[in-house]
Design goal:
Elements: H1 2-16, H2 23-32, E1 38-48, E2 51-60, H3 68-82, E3 87-97, E4 100-112
Antiparallel strand pairs: 1-2, 2-4, 3-4
């Protein structure tokens, strides 16, 4: 009887609470690899039934050596090295802020597999 209840709790904790990649590591990497000409607008981590979505949204200016797109690509490649099993999708748009053109990026890292929720 106890085994059944504890297994349900364990399943819930593994699917919705605990993770192999703590949020603190993800935040540290997001900051560590960020180019000097970029800034982050939003970081969002969601977990649902074994699937993790990590959203990184930011803006970037070109540097003297690289375009803003090149800076974003290099940044995301460094993050992807830390998340080798994650699928990465990227969306970029150019925005005009006053006289300055910036490139906004939205990167979504997704990993894990969909698992069934135990029935109570």
């Amino acid at each position: 009887e106890v085994d059944g209840e504890l297994l349900l709790e364990r399943g819930f904790m593994e699917q919705f609470v605990t993770t192999q990649r703590p949020l603190t590591e993800l935040l540290e990497w997001a900051s560590e690899f960020l180019p000097n000409t970029a800034w982050l607008i939003e970081l969002n981590l969601t977990r649902d039934k074994g699937v993790v979505n990590y959203l990184v949204k930011g803006m970037c200016l070109p540097s003297k050596e690289k375009t803003s797109i090149e800076n974003i690509e290099l940044y995301l490649q460094e993050l992807k090295k830390k998340l080798p099993d994650a699928a990465l999708s990227l969306q970029t748009t150019r925005n005009q802020i006053g006289d300055v053109e910036v490139t906004q990026f939205i990167a979504n890292f997704k990993w894990g597999k969909q698992e069934a929720v135990p029935q109570l």
